[in-house]
Amino acid sequence: MTLGAPVQLGAEELIELSEKASSMSPGWWSVALIRAGFPHARTEDVLALPVGARDRLILALRRRLRGDQFWSEPSCVQCGEVFELKFTAAEIGLDALPEVEAGFRDVAVAGAAARLRPVSVGDLLAVERISDAEAAARALGARVCEAEGGVSVEALGDALEELDPMADIWLEASCPECGAGQSIAFDPVYFAAREIRQMAGRILRDVVDLARVFRWSEKDILAMPEARRAYYVAEASA
Known about the structure:
This protein has about 240 residues and is α+β, with helices and mostly antiparallel strands.
């Protein structure tokens, strides 16, 4: 599925997405995010996407919003120190991974012949309410793998990672305080939700500041281009 380049999300759309992030599951929120950023995407199209393809779209949308520099503040697993981690998609290879196509293909899983397809967004949503992790993994495996006699969850996980390497992203980092190396899980959905909440919070604070000083309505303030709104905020606080 080709959706083209993402559109620039406006202030009202960011606020709406921020509110949805508090009421929707991460899986359904990712569907809402992609539909907002890629207006031609239908819900059924997003549900059919392999997880890696969904995350590629989310990263493209995030780069449209805030550029290619990513940053996070993980805690060291050794000393507990919180440190800053900065990276670009190119630096960790997220811009060089091949496109992953949906659909079954013949593969070998732990030496056994099987038909396997990448996990889709719809698959994740189908098992998201199963609280037991092992039961959820088995249900997910039944959806994406056809094999006589079945295969182990571990072997299936390895095969799915080869099929869709972007579906499970890990960053390698070293703690600047104690030097301990660690692998840090990177979840584009969580990352995007956190940043959109932050952006929406700043916009709403701008609304409060401008409404207090100039008595403008929320609707008029949100309709302003970002640069003009920033100018008026600076003037209001001068």
